[in-house]
Amino acid sequence: MAFDFVGSISSDIYKLRRSETFFKLTARAIIERASSEFSFHTISHDYGVGTVKTAVSYVGLLEKLHLLKTVEAVDPNTGLPMPRKLRKFYLLDPFIYHSFSKWVGAVPPDEAKMAEAAVAAHLARLYKLYYLKLNGEVDLVAEVDGELWSVEVKYGRVRKGGRRAVGRVKRFIYTSAETKPATPSFQPLLLAILKTPTPSRSERRNPQLTSREMTPSPP
């Protein structure tokens, strides 16, 4: 299955007259730096993907092929993206990570990074998605009905204690592989994904969904 998938991607690259070498180097950068913030310059300079403009082009190609989501930092006070800041890059499925890792000769990300990518990919289907870095902690931030919701993904134990509101970020969701709630806003990782509703046709046209749709279920 992975071989067929990679073969179809390789065929698409050929039909589009793009460089498979640059495509694979871009994918390798995203895999090896999974869950980290980095720039197009890093892809260009550290991985040899031509110029920064070339790196932007191949990231765009991954997005057009529905393989990748690029997430910008958000200003917590205004709710606006900050395009000059570093970005986060998420492949949209663990299968893509594993298939591309074999293809480009990279080690797949660990389970914690895969979990973050899975949550990010799912949220991005429904909401405008950003990230926020404060005091060394990096959270996903979803815009829900004009509100900014912080989503912290932990594959291990969820820390106890609340988080303080920052600017417009006033609500917090915690997801973890644990199955017992540690906080009122705790969500087991699997349920956090499964219970996020599939948008209707009209909602796909308008990603500004109601806040109830991200309200965690009672423990």
Features:
9 strands, 219 residues, Arc Repressor Mutant, subunit A, alpha/beta, 2 domains
Describe this structure in a few short sentences:
Residues 197-219 are annotated as: Disordered. With 219 residues, the chain is of the alpha/beta class.
What's the order of the H and E elements? HHEHHEEEHHEEEEEHH
| Beta-strand content estimate | 15-25%
**Could you describe the largest sheet, including whether it forms a barrel?**
9 strands, mixed
Structural class: alpha/beta
> Oligomeric state of the chains?
single chain
The average pLDDT score comes to: 83
Tell me the Rg in angstroms. Answer: 18 Å
User: In total, how many beta strands?
Assistant: 9
Overall shape? globular
Number of helices: 8
The percent of residues in helical segments reads: 25-40%
Spans of at least 5 consecutive residues with low confidence = 184-219
Domain module count: 2
Span between termini: 38 Å
